[in-house]
Design goal:
Number of helices of chain B: 14
Chains: A alpha/beta (515), B mainly alpha (332), C alpha/beta (315)
Largest sheet of chain B: 2 strands, antiparallel
Largest interface: B-C, 44 and 42 residues
Oligomer: heterotrimer
Shape of chain A: globular
Structural class of chain B: mainly alpha
Radius of gyration of chain B: 20 Å
Number of strands of chain A: 22
Distance between the termini of chain B: 16 Å
Number of helices of chain A: 18
Chain lengths: 515, 332, 315
């Protein structure tokens, strides 16, 4: 196989941080080369250099043997290097086809008018090659995250890329969609495209990667063949040590107090009559496919979105939750799946983020803040949760994903929440930090807090939950005991409502009763 | 960074980047002063320096109000006409009703706070974008100021002490050679208090937090609406103080004045390094921004630069100042 | 703040020590600072032209400044403050609000800098002279001309630049009082204010015309208002008698083309000239008339090209 890309001795420094130090990486035509490493290991920086977003400070890049200078993303595209970012960069108001050909729209009428027909035809062609049933005229904002991802891939392919960089492409995809993506990757591979695949999911690597390069602390640790290297070896290379597996601990006694009781929660087609209980010291996993309504339930309980109907009882007391502040006052905390958008004030420092939900407690006469008390609290949690930050004054955006997550956890611990709802707690978090988050969840449950954990990663759910609630299309299709099999979960997760008519009648009946 | 934790920081929340920007703005200010003092011989005369400071007082106070709102990620276009409205209210209370000075001062500040609260309610509760809400408020207040005053200036001849608010000089009583007017003292007092609120109190912390990520704050169980309204009300009250300053300086409430002043205020805020997208900003920066604008205006006048060209130079300097800021951010 | 003041002081010491800076002022000609009520309008540019002419002929150095709009009282005060800092030999001042300017004018008085009021003047006894148009009389002349042109009866409307400035009030009152006292069959159906802004005045004119289909004439009380009236009449394609005020290229052309019957012109060049003239006399300690009437004329198609009119019209 011919070598497509060779990167040697790449250096890159940011103010105060040496992001890369003599990093190297190579890619052959027609291979999937996985790039692994904990967050902050330098893999994103390396890829951003390859795709022209950052300029390198030192080292050489060769493309098919020729030294190249990749000065801008446009240059990278011209050289046939395409990157699919983890955070999708689509324009939500434009259609799928318009997004794919943005800036390169086919023209007609002496180049003055846009040729929408040809635009859509070309996009449809790419979708067809991906075996994707998607109307190119659909506005992107109406697509699911998974579909948007497919549009991103189509966009990269439209550039006839020889090198395709995928940054956590499956983070938001369900199993079926992942299979679809892998089929596409196999096809591209067969055509000689070199694919750099960044992921934290070990099982995926085993399925599709040919070689694995592991990075740590801005340097390349080693490149190994994927087939003959064990996952444990790769993890050990990543973290520089071996990890112990976390056990969920004994299930709480059935007699443990019911802390939270949710009954008849309902909102349109997103949440259809969801009822469950949560006990003291319990981790209740919420499994399901993307869009099954798990996040919606969490946000509804938390008061972030309105509900039509439903009763929430906390410690035997009925709650009226209209806004998040009602939930927080009652002792319910919510850790959003999207930390940057909903969890952290990223421009503020760790100290203030930890104190954010409890700021009033630190306000004295005239609203004067007791900074030293805030610092003490922040430092206490930095120690307790092992948050890696130079100081409590570090801006939250500069922390790695895992440490950001810990800051959000600290925020709710400081607020002393009894019920904690974790929505995808390990999304975008590297493997070392993941196990720390798991240990934290288990410890919190042992302390007697009640935890709801929403996750799309089945191993995580199976591993940590005392009970597993499964949702499909807004309904709670069943609650399984902790040791349940993947098969059982998938069965419930795909249990579409066979009796839609009956359900509708029931709904009418209920509404008639309350009206 | 370890220094920041071990040493009790003087201004909590102050960040290195902010400090560096203030340094930059301060350097520009000093550079302008040096250039003008070398080219315009009267530039550093006591009379001119005092005139510059006095001219800064109104725009500076308005810019401080605008800074607070801008840090929340909003914008307040009504500061100029709100100032006028508050001046007219003071005129009504003092001249039309003949109440004592204190009542007029309180009424102006209270009127500002109430109007600010109204704008804040439109933004927080009715979810009207700040640009639109305060644009509407700007026009409403412009009209109300004309209606209430009967479209005539209201003079404060019956309240002789009123002129002392901005024009008198407490410093001049102690140091007769530097009769810095009280208006300037009030500007610095307002700046000090606003800076304290912003850096040290819960209201200030939420001001930054709202601008940094409002949804995250809401999902932390904070009543974001209430805090936002409080910020707008505080900004409104500060506009009330600006209204008193300008009315005292002119010894009259001029109902037709005010529109366009919000742009000068916003310019001062931006030159001072406050981000229009919210979450970042300082009062001291705004103060320096306002001073830069006055120094520029007076310096160019002293040099007898034709008025047409004064606009060109001022505009170019605003763009340059913000561009330098962008360059600096890009590098870090 | 303290540090900043020290910085200023320090810089001051440096500058004073530097000899080069001081030499720049060594000029023999008397320096006169003129602070007007505006500067962008043709009218103020004509005043400036007159002042420049006097400066050249009589030997003086003048600067001319004014705020962007006539509502910016505080900006004008700042300009006056800056002018005082330049230690001029005399100041020419057209106050937007006399009372607001009094503290600074007192300072001028204390510094023995003579103040000449011009245009609308200054409501105070500080100025040694006032060079201005008699607006009341000028507007009354406009009313007489309007009455003649519409045949002594019918409805007319006024479009004034603003309701707070002295020129606005005087022109409005001069016109209105004359109509009421001398032309009883004429009714004034509307008096509106357009801020002297061309576009706003156009819109207001159109509104007035639509409200009064039988309107016979309109009076625009300054250049911007008059042009607004002409535009509004043209856009609605109506025929009526328009009397304007001041001049400017557009107004002059409208008169030549018959779209405007005629207009009052002040003598802006004369205002500027006589202000500087009076200032120089005051500097030299010569006697100055307390009120200097700078004059006004009515001009129309017939006399627009006569030399005495031509001299006071500006483009």
């Amino acid at each position: 196989m011919s070598v497509l890309v060779e990167m040697n001795d790449i250096d890159k420094a940011f103010p105060g941080v040496r992001a890369l130090h003599k990093a190297r990486f190579d890619l052959r035509a027609g291979e999937v080369h996985a790039l692994m490493g904990e967050n902050g290991a330098g893999k994103s920086t390396l890829m951003k250099i390859l795709s022209g977003i950052y300029a390198r400070d030192g080292g050489t890049i060769r493309l098919q043997g020729q030294p190249v200078d990749i000065t801008s993303p446009a240059r990278a595209q011209a050289l046939g290097i395409g990157m699919i970012h983890q955070e999708l960069s689509l324009m939500p108001d434009l259609t799928a086809a318009q997004n794919i050909y943005i800036g390169r729209e086919p023209r007609k009428g002496l180049g003055v008018l846009l040729d929408e027909t040809r635009l859509n035809a070309q996009a449809a062609e790419i979708f067809a090659s991906l075996h994707l049933a998607l109307d190119p005229r659909t506005p992107v904002e109406r697509l699911t995250i998974a579909r948007q991802q497919m549009v991103e891939i189509a966009k990269a392919l439209s550039h006839r890329s020889r090198v395709l960089i995928m940054d956590e492409p499956t983070a938001a995809l369900n199993a079926a969609e992942v299979n679809e993506l892998f089929a596409i990757i196999a096809r591209l591979k067969a055509e000689g495209v070199g694919i750099i695949y960044i992921s934290h999911k070990m099982d995926e690597l085993k399925r599709i990667a040919d070689r694995v390069t592991v990075m740590r602390d801005g340097a390349t640790v080693d490149t190994v063949p994927a087939a003959t290297t064990s996952i444990d070896t790769i993890i050990a290379m990543m973290v520089g040590r071996t990890l112990a597996r976390e056990q969920p601990g004994a299930a709480p006694a059935a007699a443990a107090d019911v802390v939270l009781q949710v009954s008849g929660l309902r909102r349109g087609s997103a949440i259809r009559d969801v009822s469950f209980t949560l006990r003291r010291g319990e981790i209740l996993g919420f499994a399901g496919l993307m869009g099954a309504g798990r996040t919606e339930v969490a946000r509804a309980i938390f008061g972030a979105d309105p509900v039509e109907r439903g009763e929430i009882v906390l410690n035997g007391r009925r709650l009226t939750i209209r806004r998040p502040q009602d939930a927080v006052r009652a002792g319910i905390g919510y850790l959003s799946e999207d930390r940057k958008q909903f969890g952290l004030a990223t421009g503020m420092d760790v100290r203030n983020n930890v104190a954010l939900a409890s700021l009033r407690r630190f306000a004295g006469i005239g609203g004067l803040l007791k900074e030293s008390a805030m610092r003490d609290a922040a430092l206490r949690y930095i120690g307790q949760l092992a948050i890696r930050t130079p100081s409590d004054r570090q801006e939250a955006r500069l922390l790695s994903g895992g440490n950001q997550q810990k800051v959000v956890i600290a925020k709710w611990l400081l607020r002393d929440c009894q019920v904690l709802i974790f929505d995808e707690p390990t999304r975008g978090i590297d493997v070392g930090a993941k196990s720390e988050i798991y240990r934290l969840l288990v410890d919190l449950a042992r302390e007697g807090r009640a935890i709801i954990m929403i996750s799309s990663e089945l191993p995580e759910i199976l591993h940590l939950s005392h009970r597993i609630a499964v949702m499909c299309e807004g309904r709670l299709t069943g609650i399984l005991p902790g040791g349940a099999s993947q098969v059982e979960i998938m069965r419930l997760a795909t249990q579409r409502d066979a009796n839609v008519a009956r359900d509708a009648t029931a709904a009418n009946h209920t509404s008639g009763a309350t009206a | 960074m370890s220094v920041a934790t071990s040493k009790p920081s003087l201004l909590p929340g102050m960040r290195l980047s902010g400090a560096r920007h203030r340094l930059l703005a301060f350097t520009s200010l000093v550079a302008l002063i040096v250039i003008f003092s070398l080219t315009a011989p009267d530039f550093l005369s006591t009379a001119n320096v005092i005139a510059i400071l006095q001219s800064t007082s109104v725009n500076g106070v308005l810019a401080i109000a605008a800074t607070l709102v801008i840090i929340t990620g909003g914008i307040d276009l009504s500061v100029g006409t709100l100032m006028t409205f508050c001046a007219v209210i003071a005129g009504v209370v003092l001249t039309y009703w003949g109440l004592p000075l204190g009542a007029g001062v309180l009424a102006a500040i209270a009127a500002g706070a109430v109007v600010g609260l109204t704008s804040g309610t439109c933004v927080a509760k009715l979810k009207i974008p700040p640009f639109i809400a305060t644009l509407g408020m700007m026009l409403v207040l412009k009209g109300l100021a004309l209606v209430i005053s009967g479209t005539r200036p209201i003079y404060f001849n019956d309240t002789p002490d009123f002129a002392e608010i901005a024009q008198g000089s407490l410093i001049g009583m102690v140091l007769p050679d530097v009769p810095i007017p009280n208006g300037v003292l009030i500007l610095f007092l307002v700046a000090l208090v606003a800076s304290f609120i912003l850096q040290r109190t819960i209201l200030g912390r939420f001001t930054f937090a709202l601008g940094s990520n409002e949804e995250a704050v809401r999902l932390s169980g904070v009543n974001t609406d209430r805090w936002k309204m409080a910020v707008y009300a505080l900004a409104g009250g500060i506009c009330g103080i600006a209204g008193l300053l300008i009315a005292s300086r002119l010894n009259s409430a001029q109902p037709a004045l005010g529109q366009g002043y919000e742009l000068d205020a916003i310019a001062a805020v931006v030159i001072g390094g406050t981000s229009l997208s919210g979450g970042r900003g300082t009062i001291i920066g705004t103060l320096i921004g306002a001073l830069i604008m006055s120094v520029l205006a007076f310096g160019l006048r002293l040099l007898s630069v034709p008025q047409e060209w004064q606009f060109v130079v001022t505009g170019a300097i605003i763009i340059l100042a913000v561009y330098i800021d962008i360059l600096r951010r890009g590098r870090s | 703040m303290l540090t900043r003041r020290i910085t200023l002081g320090g810089l001051g010491a440096v500058t004073l020590a530097g000899p080069g800076a001081m030499l720049a002022r060594a000029q023999d000609k008397a320096y006169i600072a003129l602070i007007s009520k505006g500067f962008q309008h043709q009218f103020w540019q004509a005043v400036k032209a007159g002042a420049d002419k006097a400066a050249a002929e009589l030997g003086a150095r003048v600067t001319f400044e004014g705020p962007d709009s006539e509502s910016q009282v505080d900006r004008q005060i700042d300009m006056l403050a800056a002018a005082l800092a330049k230690k001029p030999a005399a100041i020419g001042f057209a106050a937007l609000d006399s009372q607001a300017a009094i503290p600074l004018l007192r300072k001028a008085q204390q510094a023995k800098i003579p103040v000449i009021a011009f245009d609308s003047g200054v409501d105070s006894d500080i100025p040694v002279a006032t060079a201005a148009t008699n607006n009341l009389a000028a507007a009354a002349l406009a009313a007489d001309k309007m009455a003649d042109l519409i045949g002594g009866q019918g409805k007319v409307a006024l479009l004034v630049h603003d309701q707070t400035s002295r020129t606005g009030i005087e022109r409005r009152d001069g016109f209105t009082k004359r109509i009421k006292s001398a032309h009883a069959k004429i009714t004034i159906v509307a008096t509106e204010y357009g801020g002297g802004d061309h576009l706003k005045s156009t819109e207001i004119t159109k509104a007035i015309l639509q409200a009064h289909p039988d309107l016979k004439g309109m009076f625009g009380a300054n250049e911007g208002s008059a042009i607004g009236v002409i535009n509004g009449v043209k856009e609605l394609n109506r025929k009526l008698v328009v009397v304007g005020y001041d001049s400017g290229a557009q107004q002059k052309q409208a008169i030549r083309e018959g779209r405007m019957a005629g207009a009052i012109t002040q003598n802006p060049i004369g205002i500027g000239y006589k202000t500087v003239d009076a200032a120089l006399k005051a500097i030299k300690g010569q006697p100055v008339e307390k009120v200097i009437d700078t004059g006004f004329y009515y001009y129309d198609k017939t006399n627009i090209d006569q030399p005495e009119i031509k001299a006071v019209l500006y483009d």
